[in-house]
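Lab channel / #folding
Pinned by the channel admin:
"Please post every new chain as: sequence first, then the structure tokens as a reply. Keep commentary short and put observations after the output so the thread stays searchable."

First post following the new format, from NK:
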Amino acid sequence: MAKQIEAVTGLVERINDKGTGVKVNGEWLNISAYHALAELPKAGQRVEVQVERTDRGIWIQSVEVLDNGQVHACRCSCAAAVAVADGHLRSCARYAA
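Reply from TO:
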């Protein structure tokens, strides 16, 4: 059976603590041991990710960082948002808590 590859484009919302997955458009995308990435994108960067969906998860085949690597604020109801160094995007309301 041929692989079904699809593109997912959006902001990186979060990188998991182990560096084995990124959250884009509310979905966790897993980094495959078979398709290692030279460098992880940063939280807040807009990316186009080629993924394969299987019964075991969504697996990253490749990542292209868009917008010359610019880090964007998340789109939340809060007017201000910050990208913090630990790889999380937090709105000001959640960051202040």
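NK: The CA atoms of residues 5 and 30 lie 14 Å apart.
TO: also worth noting, The domain at 5-96 is CATH 2.40.50.320 (OB fold (Dihydrolipoamide Acetyltransferase, E2P)).
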